[in-house]
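Let's practice the habit of predicting before peeking. Look at the sequence and jot down your guess about where helices and strands might fall. Then scroll down.
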Amino acid sequence: MKFIQRIVSELTKPLPGLEVQLQMMNTTLGRVRKEAQKHINDSAKKAAVFLLLYQKGNEWYTVFMQRPESPYPHSKQISFPGGQYEDADKELIQTAFRETEEEFGIPWQEIQPLGRLSDLYIPVSNFWVQPFVGYLPREPLFKIDTNEVAALIEVPLLAFFSHSKRTIRDIQIHSGHTLKDMPCYVFDEKIIWGATSMILHEFLHILEGADLMNLQH
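Done guessing? Here is the structure:
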């Protein structure tokens, strides 16, 4: 699996980090995010997510979830599987394993961790998130927790390299306010924005920089 081996190699190198992540923020929110990163304190809640990679046929895929409607800041948003750190987890990667198994029904033993992406802070919910990249050697059999997952969204990685997938939209958030001119990715009318798009964008930036999408196996 040259593709997976190369990803492991790329993730050991210095990561693109905040400057690339902020390409998925509008000018105003980008400034807010950049300033917020300087003033994170011990009150920030730790969390972890998995960007999963697997093959369907000869194509590489990743998978997202749409969160259910709720009174919380991330209501109905598209996200990677993951959630808040618990004391029993001991390490953040165990948080990502546990939450992915709970939400998607994928046994944690089936996920091979490949490395991590740049962590990021989400001011609106006070979460400090560590993204991990994981590989599934076979196509997953999902058993979603409908209390936490409103919809499952599988996307071929190559789709994100279409110019039409990365765009600018006005996005209405849970409070009823509208965020103007937000960079986002759109797939089958599902809008991937905010922290999830920042994590995804950094990963795609790594793939593109290393010309990895020419490796199909």
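How did you do? The mean pLDDT is 90.
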